[in-house]
Specification:
alpha+beta; 3 domains; OB fold (Dihydrolipoamide Acetyltransferase, E2P); 409 residues; six-stranded mixed sheet
Length: 409
């Protein structure tokens, strides 16, 4: 099952071919409910967890914590490594993630050092590779495929009666920060990032409450941990790139993935950052609309003090663009234009933004020299009229205003 990510392989059954053509979210949900029937008729299961966990947020500060486990053994690490999901079809992503069964245990968020299941969750979060696990449930699992634009999807859920982890070997780099009770959570996040730990791994560890000052560690809801890590890392990068000279031309990066069109501009000037998302009718955040919906969030040189209007995607993309500018040893005014077309049938998590902005920025840019060329490039690459973008973009308005003023200087 895990090896089917790239598409249809020789010898696959007809059901696998059928799923490739499922463009209806309701049909996908039904398909995965049927596929989950062998699991949901049991009061227990075992498998190799890709060291994945999920911390809920409802009822905070008393929340459900637990592992995500597939009913299979072996190297399941790809199930929890979105950094390796480039060029993977959306149906394949949902398919593999829906094999993960969520165990649920109710606890207080500050109870990270007490309790048998809490201890097992910590061991799983510290593990450097998939670990064998066994879950016993109070009731049979139920299917509720929960899709949103921040968290990766998963399959059936059930309240835990017991949970055990076997052969879990701790990642030495993460364990060293777990043992450092004098380092703040933010310091631990940045240190692990610079040591080469993947962002998805840092987010999971942060959610498990294994970082921070002694007696102040807490479980962090998965949704919150994703944004917190992206925000902390990109702020750190942002302050570093402000020391660099401005880029000397307009760099235009373009890419299409999961029926999202990405157009990213690095524009000469001091740090500014804006991300615009345009959603076609029948897409996730415009399901019942008849016209395109546009959302935007912006920050100036000093950043912003309020939460971004477009949510976690803003911070995920900001991390990717600050990584690229840091690599170039430049600073710039950054504009992201994202068009979401109807092939994006359901959200699969904020990783989609981080990883596909990274992918887009890994490509060779088009070098532009004038505002006119930039506007023309938008017209040539995106389907929505450029006037719609200008009306909703702080950066585009500022650029065009500066051009008009320059005519009189």
């Amino acid at each position: 099952m895990i090896n089917e990510l790239s598409g249809i392989t020789p010898g696959v059954k007809r059901s696998t071919i059928v799923y490739q053509h499922m463009r209806d979210p309701a049909l996908l949900r039904y398909y995965y409910k049927v596929k989950a029937l062998p699991v949901i008729n049991q009061l227990g299961m075992s498998g190799s967890s890709p060291t994945d966990i999920f911390i809920g947020r409802y009822g905070y500060p008393k929340v459900f914590i637990g592992p995500l486990v597939p009913p299979e053994f072996g190297d399941t690490s790809i199930l929890n490594r979105p950094e390796g999901w480039w060029h993977t079809p959306i149906e394949s992503i949902v398919k593999m993630r829906s094999t993960l069964v969520r165990g649920m245990h109710l606890t207080k968020v500050d109870n990270v050092e007490n309790g048998r299941i809490e201890e097992q969750i910590r061991d799983l979060a510290l593990a450097e590779r998939p670990a064998n696990t066994e879950m016993q449930f109070s009731k049979k699992p139920y299917v509720k495929l929960d899709f949103n634009d921040e968290v990766q999807p998963f399959g059936p859920s059930a309240q835990l009666r017991s949970f055990d982890v076997y052969n879990a070997k701790a990642d030495a780099k993460i364990e060293s920060l777990y043992s450092d009770t004098d380092a703040t959570a933010t310091e631990a996040i940045i240190e692990l990032y610079h040591r080469g730990i993947q962002v998805s791994q840092i987010q999971k560890s942060f959610s498990a409450g294994i970082f921070g000052l002694k007696n102040r560690r807490k479980f962090v809801p998965t949704r919150w941990s994703i944004t917190a890590v992206d925000d902390s890392l990109s702020k750190n990068k942002r302050e570093k790139i402000k020391e660099n000279n401005a880029i000397d031309a307009i760099y235009a990066y373009y890419n299409v993935s999961l029926d999202n069109r990405w157009l990213i501009f690095f524009i000469p000037g001091n740090w500014e950052y804006e991300s615009l998302e345009t959603w076609y009718p029948k897409t996730v955040w415009n399901m019942n609309g008849n016209d395109v919906s546009i959302y935007s969030s912006y920050e100036g040189y000093k950043g912003r003090s309020t939460y971004a209007e477009i949510g976690g995607c803003y911070y995920a993309a900001r991390l990717a663009v600050t990584e690229k500018l840091d690599m170039l040893k430049k600073q710039a005014t950054v504009l992201i234009l994202r068009e979401v077309h109807d092939g994006y049938i359901m959200p699969v998590g904020v990783w989609n933004v981080r990883e596909h902005v990274r992918e887009t920025l890994s490509m060779k840019p088009e070098i532009l020299h004038t505002t006119g060329e930039m506007i023309g490039y938008i017209k040539g690459k995106l389907a929505i009229p450029v006037g719609n973008y200008i009306a909703n973009s702080t950066i585009l308005k500022n650029i065009l205003m500066q051009k008009r003023l320059s005519n009189y200087v």
